[in-house]
Amino acid sequence: MKKGWTVTQLTAIGALAALGLVISLPGAVVAALTGTSFIGAGVNVIAIGILYPLVALLFKKVGSVTLWTFIGGILALPFPIAGPPGFFLKIPYFVFWGVLTDLTYLIFRKSEKVAAIAISAFGIGPALILAPLFWKILGAPQLEKQYSSFSPWYFVLAASIAGGLLGYLSYLIYKKVEKTAIVERIQK
Fold first, then answer.
1. Per-residue DSSP letters for 79-117?
2. Range 146-154 average pLDDT
3. What CATH number does domain 7-186 carry, 1.20.58, 2.60.40, 3.30.470, 1.10.1760?
4. Is Membrane among the key words of this record (predicted)?
């Protein structure tokens, strides 16, 4: 596989970032109506649990999810996704999760199934602990407070189990599309 990025891969990354945004819009509507971004994230947890490992498996490049989340963070700026509209700190927040996903993929990439499960389990469960810390570092006390209320160990455990199941579902989706022409072209 080539080391650089092809036009096809960059186009696919951008298209998947736009797809992630479209899938997240219902959560954004809930966040806007309730005034609580965490509720929007809760609504979007299914998309998060499926798309993050799917992007890693589709591209099989460390850095692909980071690039995808960077583009996704920029696209999310005008929407109440991961913070209020126009909140520029959502870009490093998105990128943080992309880097975490890429590192998880790097560790577990020898087994696609284990990688997909680990990406979602580690990305969703510990997010309940890491998100408040990250928002505190970025200086967003309102978001820190919202996320902190959902970080007891039993929420983290339940979210990790749910994440693992979503990661497995992502793996099954990948296996269904793995031999299609578009995926083979992306992976060239």
1. TTSSSSTT-TTHHHHHHHHHHHHHHHHHHHTTSHHHHHH
2. 68
3. 1.10.1760
4. yes
Alpha helical stretches, state H, the chain: 7-34, 37-59, 64-76, 90-108, 112-124, 127-138, 141-148, 153-177, 181-186
CB 126 within 8 A of CB 155: no
What is the per-residue pLDDT for 142?
67
Query: How far is Cα 132 from Cα 74, in angstroms, rounded to an integer?
Result: 21
Residue 77: Cβ-neighbour burial (10 angstroms; 0-12, 13-18, 19+) = middle
What's the rounded Cα separation, in Å, for the pair 115 and 60? 11
Residue 81 to residue 44: CA distance in whole angstroms: 9
Residue type, 60: K
Q: What is the C-alpha to C-alpha distance for residues 127 and 81, in angstroms, rounded to an integer? A: 15
Total-model pTM:
0.87
d(CA 33, CA 161): 29
